[in-house]
Amino acid sequence: MISELKTVRFGELALDSGETLRDVEVAYESYGQLNDRKSNAILIVHAFTGDAHAAGPDKDGAPGWWSSMIGPGKAFDTDRYFVLCSNVLGGCRGTTGPSSIDPATGKPYGMSFPVITIGDMVRLQHMLVQSLGISRLLAVAGGSMGGMQALEWAVSFPDAVYASIPIATTGRHTAQQIAFNEVGRQAIVADPDFQGGSYYESKPPARGLAVARMVGHITYMSDESMREKFGRKLRGREEFSYGFGVDFEVESYLRYRGSQFVGRFDANSYLYITKAMDYFDLSSGYPSLGASLERAQCRFLVISFTSDWLYPSYQSLEIVNALRSRNHDVTYCELTSTYGHDAFLVDVKDQTGIVRGFLARCERELEAAP
Amino acid sequence: MKVHDVLGRRDYALISRLIPAGSRVLDLGCGDGALLAFLKETKGIEARGIELNPEMVQAAIARGVSVYQGDLESSLREYPDKAFDYVLLSQTVQEARRPLMVLTEMLRIGNRAIVAFPNFGHWRVRFSHLMSGRAPKTHLFPHAWHASPNIHFLTVLDFEELTREQGWLVERRLFLSGSRRISHFPNLCAEIAVYLLKS
């Protein structure tokens, strides 16, 4: 079955910054069937550079970014569940973002796009879910920035979600996470082609965006996975070039990933979305992380990975312990993997077993409830 | 070795008899969650567990039990007072580095604690030690001294004394030899002791 990108439009969206965005479009895909009670819907929330194409082949045959987890018989079993994934607000893959046309000017927003937050992204997802007639999701699940959204859902819309599955994520961005994002942003802004973000009629800041992506890729892997994958192997040569072309395999890989990224991602979206992540702090407006989670009604499955140094396990534990100190129902597991932060996308065997068991339990409890 | 391994499902029935339907239960060192799943199924309890071994944690989550992966000695302080009706500690107290702290915390976070432990005062253990002059080995304590997870060798009398010192109320005490309940000379004849405590 081919995954089809659908779009819904909303008149306006009130933002955390105080501004209002008009004529907002949301691009989404869905898999499986919504049951009569509309009780089997699962919202998948994507990571930073993900999009709505989470599963199945698209019209060009490309697999979704979480095809290993979503599909018939998989962790998010599309024979049982109605699985939904939308592109985030501020993105560049169908949902309104800085590359969309500003209805007021008829030109792309560029840097006139309002600054957005994780809370804004989730509010828009909630509008999408409601427009489909779903009053409560069985679960909302995602890794990395997706995990932030899964947490935000639990706190912002406690009645609209039965279970939350935040994976490889944090309740707030730390100085180190903000620092890596800032390096990426500065690489983009320093590119002469950036032109204050108004590059849509000329050429995009490809070099800056590629460098930003290279830094990102390093943070997604682990020392061990890089040693295994590249070591000190040379690329297509026996000896050093004694120059500054590509010598090492790892250089070649990063350059390839950087240039490939430029073709599918908008530099302004990079700026806006990383800023939204940096602003993310679940506890903001509350005395503590625990106090914000007090609002949550759902049960949680929190997963972290041993080799993830971008979102290390201690950050998941902060969330888990805040929940335990309020006697919330939380399941926590630190999975063993050498893949670093990427583990939630690529090392899915153990993750599959626990997600499947957790969802089955939630389903049973919901059925037993009056 | 856990009570489950020795008694099969008999200890489930035993513990199940001590726990009223619909209770909130925390099982410390819950393993693969089999006991919690059994109690959830048969008694409709609200089940939570703590387990350190990642494979066991995954197995427990896969069967639908809410488990926290962590070391039980450092994991209890997060829970609020009286968060549970029953806190279970099955065959682990003799492995804990700070058993008194664990037991005290169990009675803080739970209304009641159920503690099951192997009795080191059993005649077979005494006999093994006396005759061999070496660290005792029995089917309940099968490990070589250097490979044993047991770091405390408590007996029924030791535990009774602790409950008096701490002022804990013993609501039930059950003694087992093999799968048989016994009532006489428990310190000599019981292989497993099960205590239901209230602070």
Total of helices of chain A: 11
Q: What's the architecture of the largest domain in chain A, going by CATH? A: 3-Layer(aba) Sandwich
Count of helical segments of chain B? Answer: 9
Look at the structure and give the CATH class of the largest domain in chain A.
Alpha Beta
Structural class estimated from helices and strands of chain B: alpha/beta
Instruction: Provide the domain count of chain B.
Output: 1
Shape type of chain A: globular
Number of separate structural domains of chain A: 2
Query: For the record, what CATH class of chain B applies?
Result: Alpha Beta
- Which strand order do you get reading across the main beta sheet of chain B? 3-2-1-4-5-8-6-7
CATH homology-level superfamily of chain B: Vaccinia Virus protein VP39
Distance between the termini of chain B: 28 Å
The helix/strand series of chain A, from N terminus to C terminus, equals EEEEEEEEHEHEHHHHHHEHEHH
Give a written overview of the molecule.
The complex is a heterodimer of chains A (about 375) and B (about 200). With about 375 residues, chain A is of the alpha/beta class. Chain A folds into two domains: about 260 residues, Alpha/Beta hydrolase fold, catalytic domain (Rossmann fold); about 100 residues, Rna Polymerase Sigma Factor, Chain: A (Orthogonal Bundle). Helix content of chain A is about 35%, strand content about 15%. Chain A contains eleven helices and twelve strands. In chain A, the strands form three sheets. Chain A has an eight-stranded mixed beta sheet with strand order 1-2-6-3-9-10-11-12, with helices on both faces. A two-stranded parallel sheet of chain A has the order 4-5. A two-stranded antiparallel ribbon of chain A has the order 7-8. In chain A, helix 2 links the parallel strand 9 and strand 10. The longest helix of chain A is centred in the C-terminal third of the chain and has 20 residues. The two termini of chain A are about 35 Å apart. The model of chain A has no long low-confidence stretch (mean pLDDT about 95). Chain B is an alpha/beta fold and about 200 residues long. Chain B has a single domain, classed as Rossmann fold. Chain B has nine helices and eight strands. The two termini of chain B are about 30 Å apart. The N terminus of chain B is likely disordered. Chains A and B meet through helix 9, strand 12 and helix 11 of A and helix 4 and strand 3 of B.
